[in-house]
Structure prediction request, 162 residues.
Amino acid sequence: MKKNIFKIGLVMITIGFFSCSNDDNDGGSTAQEELSFKVDGTSIVADEFEAVLYTNAVAGGRYIDVYGSKNGNDFAEFHFPAKTGSFPAQQSFDMASCWLTYENGVNYPDNYFHSTSGTLTVTVCDTVANKIEATFNFTGNNSSVDKVITDGKLKINSITRQ
Prediction:
């Protein structure tokens, strides 16, 4: 009897030893999310952002909208096809281009700088695993003033579906 208790105890300790790990990774992604760029040379980094996947009837396919904010104020709004590729930054909704906007206030149109040129390059667009990675640069205009957006980085690990 004592031998059986000893064997059971030894098996339990062995199972416990091999089933425990000091790895805190739950299998999910540990990659850092990011939305950052420079406006006329000044760096801006979002402290909150959201990506939304939906069907855009005007564009004729699935689209992703990304909204970024800092300290509760919106400063970026991006619209692009839900696929990888390089998209010219324009002011249209279609499956071959994107619409990027930099915002530096709430007054429309004075504080909304819509893309007139530039590129969004989407290198990862996995709507199943909820991952988007892209780089971008563009010139935005509010009808009278240009803002130059450079060194843009987008990395998102969460997508909301509509």
